[in-house]
Every structure is written in structure tokens, then in C-alpha cells.
Fold each of these.
Amino acid sequence: MSDRSGWRAVLIGVAKYDDEAFHDVPAALNSVRAFKGILTDPNLCGWPEESVTVVENPRKPIDIGRPLQEAALAATGTLLVYFVGHGELNESNELCLVVGDTEIDHVEITGLDYDNIRLILSKSKAGAKIVILDCCNSGKAIEALSGAESQIANTTVIKGAYTLTAADYAAHVPSPQLAETQTSFTKALVDIIREGVPEGGEFLDLSTIYGSLIQRLSAEALPKPNQRGTDTVESFEFTRNMAFSSHAHARSVAQQVPDDPIELEMLHAIRSRVEGRGVEFSAFAIALWKLIAPSTGECALFRAWGDASVSISGNYLLGPIGDRVRIDFVLDAHCRPIASGVDYREMDRLIYRMESAGQFGVMLTLSYVDPEVYERIRVSREPVVVVCGKDIVDILTSYGYDDAVGVEEWLNGKLSLGR
């Protein structure tokens, strides 16, 4: 994790109001706590606990202004402001954040005018400034915004900052308000961050998160959010992407070889049948691979090294029958005891052949690939498919050959192998 000692966040949730014109929003406190949860989660946003200030149910504008000013002055890296509660428009049609003692008839002097927040943030030395406003507007705010497209988003623009707002008009709070209820906007935002975006990269930037918010909220017929950004702040990497997978994981020895006696007998039956028989071992390797990849086309023995391994070249057919693309591959197969794994030398040999004769490689072994070797090809993203002992018994079992007798039947009948 990079140095985040200069990061500061102020999270504000207002649930209770004195003026009956503003309905209480119990979901606000649930939302601010949920947002803090993802912000400080080391597996997600990773903000240090001590850098995050939470303000719940502020009574007066200064209850927000003071901690916000302190955070803005202290921030040298990233400054984040999150607000959930009511947002109201003053007589100038500009946004005011509503606090506990805000009066509907005197919003401009009893609420926190967003111009004051803009001024505070503009004086901060933070390199990135992020403002997230989950404002639930009252009926009068809806009327005032009528015909004013993106009014709230437009009035919150700050130079060098990214602003995300819940809605142009009225944000949405689910009903009934249960103890665990969050506002619809914050719940969608938190869920996206916790679940990740499958098509995203290792980290999710603000723009990607916004795109997912649009899709999720639109699918539920909820108000559309808005974003505004300057100086490319929308590319700020906000969180790790929990749905990201750069490559298949390197499996341990225990994950590659079975421990069930019946499955071990299946592997023993295969090895005792094909060990030392290059042609039969090649036929076995090709037939097994075709069970895994049925679109495999022609295969041919390329070269054999002693009695323990065979090498095969082939092609995989991709696309509709009338217009298939042929992808060449090479397959190395090793017939060895369970306790003997594929080493660096053998993997390097496959990769060397793959670079000159195939677009991907297959390492098939009755045992396992050494974990360090496995890790190396995954970190370097080599296009190598590993088929180990556990994979072999799993695929045969899926076709109904679930014990040593069944394996013998398959070897005899399907491959016409003789002793």
C-alpha cells in the first residue's frame, strides 16, 4: 500500500431534523457507517482509520465546517468528503446541506451553503479531492429543480475535484426504513465496491464505478446519479476490484493430486497401463485432452523424450462451423509417480516449443507441477494450461469412469489400447 499519511476523509450523516418539513432519515446513519466500512477495509479502499472523521447528526453548520476545514488543511494526498442527508436549494437556486437545526424558511443562514464547502476545498493542498453527495431532497427542492437539468451536479463543481451526486432531483430512501436500511444510492455504491466489476481492472477508478452505478440504479428504476470531474480526477483508483482475476491461481500440491484411495487407484491404473509405451501414452494424452477441450482438431506426436514423456502438436478450433479459426497448441505429457512433480526444466522446454510452434501450451501430468514452477508461469502470464492428476480423475469421473475398473474400460474400449 502507498503512503497514505496525507489522506483525510470527512464522512457526514444527518438522520434527525428539528424542522418537521425535513423528514428524519434513519438510513443516513446506516449509510455513513457502511461507507466508512468499505473506505477503511484494507482489502478494498484501504484508508487508515485515523485519517477518517465521522460526523453523525451535526446540529449546526459549523459542526460540519470545522472538521472539514481541519481535514482540508491537513490533507496533502487525497481529500474526501461524503455527505448523506437532505439537500435543499436556497433562494439563489444553489445547494445547501441541511443539518439538525436547519429551518426550511431560512435555509441560507441555518444550513451549510455549498459555496462555503467549495471555498474550503479550493484552499486544500490535496492532490485529489473527491466529493460524494447522497442528498435526499424535500418536495420544495424537487419543484425548484424542475427544468434545471443536473442543477445540483453543476453547482458543486470544484477545480481539481471529482464530484458524485445521488440525483438531479430527489434521491431515494427505501421504505420501510429498517434498522439496516441504507439509502438506495449508497447501498448501490457500497455493493459495487464490495462485489467488484468483472470487466474492470485490478483497481476501480471513479469513472468505472460511476458507470456501474448508472447501470444498477437504472435497472431498479431509481434516480440517475451525476458526476463532474476536472483535471482527470475521475481516473483516481478508488478501490481494489474484488471481481478482478489477472490469471488462474497457482495450485498447491494438495490441490493437484487426489488423496482419495479410489482416485489414487485410477491414476495408478493409467500409469501402469501406459508407462513406457510412447504410442499408447500419446493416444491417452490426446483422448484425455479432447475430453477437456472437445473442440480440439487434429493432433500428432511431435517428439518423445525417453519413456517418461511425450510431446504433441495440435490445433483448437474456435468459432462457428462455417467459419472456424484454428489455434495451434503444443502438449507435453508426463507419466510419472504421484510423488514426482514437473520441474523448471520440463516447463521451460514446453514454453520454448510453444513460442515457436503454438499459441498456447498444455502441461499434462499424472502427478503435479512444482508449486514454484506453477507460480512462475502464472505471474509471468504464460498461456499454459495445467492438467494434473486431480484434473484427470475429475474429468474421467464426470464421464462415468469413477474407479480403476472404469478407467480400464475407457482405456480398452474408447482408445482400443491393448496390453
Amino acid sequence: MEKFAWIMSPNKNWDDKKDLITTSLESGINHIMAKEDEIKNIKKLANTNIISNNPEAEIYLIGINGEGDNTLPLSKNLEKSKDLKDAKEHKNLGQSVAAYIEIIDKEHEHLARKLGKTVDYLILVGKDWTVIPLENILADLQSENVKIIAAVTDENEAKLALETLEIGTDGVIFEPKDFAQIKKIADLIENLSHEKYNLKEATITNVKPLGTGDRVCIDTTSMMVPGEGMLIGSYSKAMFLVHSESLESEYVASRPFRVNAGPVQAYVMVPGNKTRYLAELEAGDEVLIVNKDGTTRPTIVGRCKIEKRPLLLIEAEYEDIKIKSLLQNAETIRIVSNNGEAVSVSNLNQGDKVKVFIDENARHFGMAINETIIEK
């Protein structure tokens, strides 16, 4: 699961605040909770996302603190909560909404669960996450379409929140105090966001040259190294690990930012255990770089290049599962063998062992679902 971090605008003078916000942005943190009078200055630093009670903010914020927003006990007055009403009104206007709630008792925990069924983001504030029943809220809202964010002060609190119940919160929010704190939390987010795929060993059963088709090259904003590529295939639940162009060749120079992915109809794995058609990808989209051990990291598409090229059909089997994919018929196109080495498709033979990913679930609109879908 991809994790994320937001920051609260620091309670400092502008010069000190500016340096901390800039460091956060450079560390990949691009959501800032800010007061209305700060937004203009923050926007001058970068085109970032603001969380604020300003209706023009990218994410509209409703806030509940320890004072509560009701004169009656919250548990008896949930439907009359002005914050809940505010959230529904802005959702109806098509805005993204975040609720900021301090969990000080069972009533506020109950209200957090109620808000979590309405808002897009639920920011939970607690004095001690080892005591606050974060597990209860996570369990109750796990089937809802809401991102849960824990307010933390340091890397240790962030790690605890992000790993609670094994699933953890979707993100954390913190007030940056110094550059070291920002760096530690940003590094933690990056490490926890790496998805892991259990790659299997499949046996090549057929390699067959075909005619031409529209082939897609994915050029990313990241440099890949030998052993890295992308999961690509004609079937959304069975994919080959197609190697990047990070190796030197006597025919062309290495292009370590590129994966020659296959024809337009093929699937590629993207963050969140989802797939996209190659034809859909464009600059700014995210895809997953996968290494020979199944460890992943997200990257951004810089461009996709579609050209007519001769194609090759590759078929393999894992147990009783058949796997097919089409790739460009060229010596520089490689998939990853069972021992982690890149092997050219022009050198593939029946009986060769290669790395594949097999998904137990079928997919609908790119998302894994428990449904029978036949692909052939």
C-alpha cells in the first residue's frame, strides 16, 4: 500500500517557515495544511496542494478540537454536528474534504467513525497513539472510501501509526520542526510504500514471431538498474517481468529510464496493486518499477512512445496457468530469467525458466476483484 505524508504549516516566522516548507516539498511532501493568510506565500514556493477551510483550497478542511462543536454530548447529537453538515455540503459541491478531529473520548471516536463515512480524508489527533484506540477506527472504516491520517510528532510515532493492525493508516501529518525530522519521516514513507510481489518461476512453452502492431515504450523519470523492469502481460492476472533498457547493447546505447513494454492492449502494473492498459498511459501517470526479487518502487511516466514494430508472442506455464504476452521482436527486448538475469526474447527457447507474477484475483477496470474472468 502506498503511504504518504502531509505537513502542517510550522508556527514560525515566515523565513524559518519557508525553509521548512521548501525542504518538505523537496522531500516529496506536497500537501500542506495552512491558514488562509499563508496560502498566497506558500503557493509562490511551488504548485502544491493546500488543506484549509478556504473553499478554494484543493482540500476543504473541517476541524473539531477538544472543545467539541456541540453543546450536547456528541454521542447524542451526531446528526446535528455542524462539522458533519459542513462536510456533506462541500462533498455535494464536488470538493475533496478532510476532517480534523482530536480523539479525547469515546464520543469523539464515535464521531470520527461517522465522519469517515462522509469525508475523503480523516485526520486523527491524539496525545498518545499507544493508548488511543486507533485500531478500532481503522477496523471500522477499512471498507470505506476514506484515507485515514494520523497526526504525529516524530518518526517513531509515524512508524507506529503507519503499521498499526499491519495495514496501518494511509498517511501521517506533522508539523516540521527541523530538517532531520522531515528527512526521517520522508524516508520512512518511501520505505513503507514499496509494494512486494511474490514472483513465480514459469516455463516457456512457445515463442512465435507475428506481424506488426502498435508497440509502446514507457519512458520514466527514474533511472533503472540491471534486474529492474515492469510487470507486463496480455492477461491482467499473469504477467512477465519485462526488463528495462538499462543494459548496454552493440546495437543501441542503454536507456535506463525506458521499458520497451509491448503492444497497446497489454497491461502494466501500477501502484496500489492495479493495472493500466499501455495505451492509456501518458506523461504524469504513475507506474511500478519491479526488481528481480519482486520489490517495487513507484515512478512517473515522462512520455509514452507508440510506433509500429514487429511483434513476438511469448507463452509460458506456471502449474496449470497459461501466460501470454506480446513484445517487440528485437534483440534488445529482454525478460527476466529465473536466476534474475536479463534474457533477450530472440534467445528464448521452450523449457527456459522466467520470472512471472500470478494474481489469484481477476481484475475489473484494473482493480483486483473476487470474480471469475476468463482471459485467453
Amino acid sequence: MPTRRRASWHSGRMVTASRGDGMRRANLALVLRTVHREGPRSRAALTEATGLNRSTIADLVGELVSDGLVVERAPDPVGRVGRPSPTVAPDPRVVTVAVNPEVDALDIGVIALDGTLIARERLPQTRLLTPERTAELVGERLAAWAEGPLRGRRTVGVGVAVPGPVRAADGLVRTAPHLEWTDAAIGALIEQATGLPARVGNDAALGALAEYLFGAARGAHDVVYLNGGASGIGGAVIVGGIPLGGAGGYAGEFGQNRPGIVDAADRRAADGVLEDEVSRSRLLAAVGLEGGDDAALSDALASASDPVSAAEVDRQRRILATALANAANVLNPAVIVLGGFLAVLAARDLDGLDAAVRAQTVPACAEGLRLAVAELGEDRLLVGAAEAVFEAELFPGR
């Protein structure tokens, strides 16, 4: 019987590998993923972190250097005795383009393998973005950046964070209701516009990935993440360090849950779901803004002194606290992370929101529970979209 071979993307090029190469691919992925997610490490530290022997690490690092995925730097000699080990770091010339289409803007950025945000632009929109227009704008920005942020860099793909359920099998956007997308093959459109591989995911799922790896949930293994954006509220769950996708990849739609509202006077939308009641647009209206990003909303709320805006903030926080308590009771996470305008709401009085959540949570589930705002701020969705590309294109053998 002939040896089975399969095609895989490695180091920015397509190669055909036999099954016997699987262990080496896995070890290369392990070393690259370690320095990407944990930061630069000496060869000695990589030996300890991976459990591989010194000669294997030296061989793998040599191949990664040759492939242009890592660089070796002279170590800091201060305080060292004997011959120090070179430091291995991700090559910052390897980048991913990350995209987040929303109802009022297209956010697009370039993120390097070492985590550096190379470029970021927000392109305001006066009309809803179609999938075709989104792909066109991405192609235009890549062309414009060719002699700027992308000059001298290797772009390995485009990551797209979409506010709606995305089919895990093929990245099809089943529905992004606020964008009015249905069964949108945005990944294929972007690949046609850029010539690069595209990875598409739900925005909240990608935001959760970013905060789990690099932000407020780092070190936790059980996480609930809620993202509040112009399109509503999305969510994601990580259980035992593994994202909970569900049968089709649609798990985490907290915004579509029916909210628990104790006081009928707090209801604003008859038979509405959570994102109808806890709403960025309602907050903007309360402070007299027609639009703006989360920073503008936060500033406006901080400077507002009228009772109307204060009452709206309090109302939304009461409903949000019940929703978070329900999530804590069902999923028993170690941390609940809030991003977007939900982070703005929480940051007004994080301790107060924490107390309101705990008051409605089963005591056993409240033990060790931590409530946190997203540490990566407005970059969280782009970071998550970039990570999806790095994982798919550069970390073979998983």
C-alpha cells in the first residue's frame, strides 16, 4: 500500500507531507505557537516548556528561522553566568490582515506574528456594508498598504470577525441580521479580492479567543465572554480550555436569550431579547449621540450629569447582571469577560455589577468567579481574527 500523503500549509508555502512527517510538523507547531503566544524564549526555556530535548529544539528552531517564521536574537548578558542561550522570537515580518465589518464602519488592521499592531484603520460607512463591498474595501486597503505597512512583510491571510453565526465547517455567515447578510460566503469573496486565504468567525467567538490567549481571561480554563457592539450582543464559551462551538458552530448567542426582568418598568421592548434591552443605541440616545465608538460613549457617559442617562445606565446594568448570573449558574466559569459597550457599562462600577451578579448566582458557582472587562479594548476582535489565521495557516500538526 502506498504511503498516504496530504497537502498542508507550512511556513507560508504549500507542501505535500507523508503521515510520517506528522510528529515533526506537530513539534514545529508547538515551538512556533509557544513563542507566539507566550513571548520570546531562550532555547533552554523552550526545552523546558515543550519537553523536547535540546538537540531537537536546536534543529526545529533552525528550520523555523530558515522558513522566516522566527528570529534568533542575542541574549541579554546582564546577570548571566556561562554561555547564554539565544532568544527565539516570532518574526515580525509575518503578518495577518484582520477585518471586522459592522453596521456603521469597517475596522481593518495588520497584526504581526509577534503581536504588534502594525496598522489600524476605521472606515466609517453611511450605508450597510454588503459582503461584496466588504471584500472590495479589504482589497483596496491591501493595495494601498502595499508600499506602506505591508512593505517587506509576508501576509499569510485575512481574518474576518462577523457579527452573526458562522458555520464552522466552511465559514459561511448564516445570518448577520443587522448587516442584512444571509448565507454570505464572505471568505470566498475576500480570497478573490486579495488572493490570500481567508478565515471567518463569529466576532464574539474571536474576541473570546483573543482575551483567553492574551487578555483578561489569560490563565483561566473556563470562560464566558459577552461582546457588545453596534449589531447587538454576541457571546462565546470556553470550557476546559476548548472553545464550545456546538453542533454547527453557533454556540454562545447570549444576545438572543429572553432576559430576566424583575421590574416590568425596566422593559423597553415587548417580548424583546437581551440585546433589545441592553443596547448600545439606547445608551447613545440617552447621552444625545447619533453615533460613535466605545471610547466616545464612555466619555459621554462620564461627563453626563442628567438623570435620564444615569437611569438608562442603571436599568441596563440591572438586566445585564441577571443575564450574567444565569450564565454563571449554567456554565460555572472562572471568569466572565465583557467587551465593547458592555465593558463600558461594567466599568462604570465593576464592583457594584459584580455584587449584583453574585446576589443572583448559586453560592457554589459564585466561588472563585471573577468579572472582568476586556483588556484588549477595541483591538480584541482584530486580534482574535488574526489568531484564527495564524492557527490555521502557520501551526500545522494540531
